[in-house]
Amino acid sequence: MLYQRILIALLTLFVIACTTDELYLEDSIVISDPEIPSLPIYSELGYNTFGVRYNRESITGNSYDYPLTVMVENGATSLIFKGSQSYSNKFTFTFKLSEAMASREALLTLGGKKYNLDSDNIAVSLVENNEEKSLEIISGEFEIKNAQKMLVDDEEKGVILSGVFQFQAKVDGEPASFSYGRFDVVIGYSNFYNLD
Fold it and tell me: Cross-referenced PROSITE patterns, in alphabetical order (predicted)?
């Protein structure tokens, strides 16, 4: 009986070790920020997290949407962040860069770039519960602090984009602040789309 249990345990470990599925790279690792516990910490390790304070409540990535999807279309690159607030309100933030990234590897050139959100080279939009909001940016910035390759056993699995953002805006005519925004996401096959 003991021999059978050991054999089953070894076979199970062998099957798990030989599995080529790397879905774990898509999972989020959420470590709460000690100063703002409702947001994930800022990191640059590919934790697949996103969070921002919308006035006095937090919006964070959830377990059913990619926190960030990159879509290249019509000569522009859209960084599409999805999250929820108290599991009920769903939000989509889109930061549309005027430059086209032809491949995931081209995203590496974004590292260290800072964008002034009230300029012409980036557009911001907001959707709440599938309803596009009127968004008038007052001031703010979006910074991709780091862009690096994600390597697993010396094999590239994607690009990690990490950064911060904040802005003030009128949302449907009402003043609002979006503060302490941060993201740390692996961009791989499942969340990079080049439609050009």
Answer: PROKAR_LIPOPROTEIN (PS51257)
Number of separate domains in the chain: 1
Domain with residue 46: its CATH number is 2.40.128
Helix, strand, coil tally for the chain in percent (to 5): 15, 55, 30
Q: Which domain holds residue 185?
A: 27-194
Q: Which amino acid is at 33?
A: D
| Phi, psi angles (nearest 5°) of residue 121 | -90, 5
User: What does the pLDDT look like over 42-66, one tens digit per residue?
Assistant: 999 999 999 999 999 999 998 778 9
Name the residue with tokens 């076979």. Answer: 11
Asked if residue 4 belongs to a domain, the reply is: no
Whether 33 is covered by a domain: the verdict is yes
61 inside domain: yes
Structural Rg of the chain based on CA atoms: 19
pTM: 0.85
Task: Dump pLDDT digits (tens) for 101-115.
Answer: 999 999 999 999 999
Cα angle 128-104-92, degrees, rounded to a multiple of 5: 0
Tokens of 188: 């791989």
- What whole-number distance in Å separates Cα of residue 53 and Cα of residue 45? 22
Secondary structure class of 84 (helix, strand, coil): strand
In contact, 105 and 188? CB cutoff 8 Å: no
Q: Which two tokens stand for residue 170?
A: 């009128």
